[in-house]
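Good day; I would like, with your permission, to put a structural problem before you. A protein sequence and the structure tokens that stand for its backbone fold form the material at issue. I would ask you to consider whether the tokens describe a fold that such a sequence might reasonably adopt. I set the record out below, with my sincere thanks for your time.
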Amino acid sequence: MNLLAFDTSTETLSVAVAVAAGAAVLEHTAAGGPQASASLIPVIEDLLARSGLTLAALDAIAFGRGPGSFTGLRTAAAVAQGLGFGAGVPVLPIDTLLAVAEQAHGLCGATQVVAMLDARMGEVYYAAYERSGPAWTTRTPPALGRPQDVQVPAGWTIAGNLPDALAGQLPPARRVTALPTAAALLRLAPAGLAGQAAHPAAQALPLYIRDKVAQTTEERAADRARKDSQRAADAAEPT
């Protein structure tokens, strides 16, 4: 199965190509963010050339559909749509949080994972997945919330890219740093294709979860007041 996969949902750009079943995977990782929109297509072209594949020879184009950076999600969806439409290749949108769980499994063998990505503004994107054999089951669908409000069952692994300020608000649990890599997307792709999750290129759409990217002035003021109140309460506690 010939597959192209890429993710631009975080500050890391990840692209990979797999040639036929069992063949070696070609990967590229670089800085993402604003640079991803300019570098993604050249990286794809380079990996395809090195693999000896053309776009038309692909069985599917897998991409991280979100949640994540709004700009990154739009970049991934637009590129998947454009390449898929031009080459007549189906697209396979895959949840970025599922890719985080898959990456965590590859790193440490975790089979019960609460996947989290930094959503900014003191919040996280999160979802819970459980693996049985080669298949993942969604226990909690992708959502948005504060770290301290995320339920982490005993014995489960937290995986993601949270900064220390957010990670410190999580309950005690085994933690693994994991990103939604293109290699993880490639490993998830066969199950998605078997489950009829591939779509015509025109249906390459992002999954945002959050409906806004910035706080209002009032929300920022309320957030500052809440933090000041919390700091004052912490300072007043006896040592």
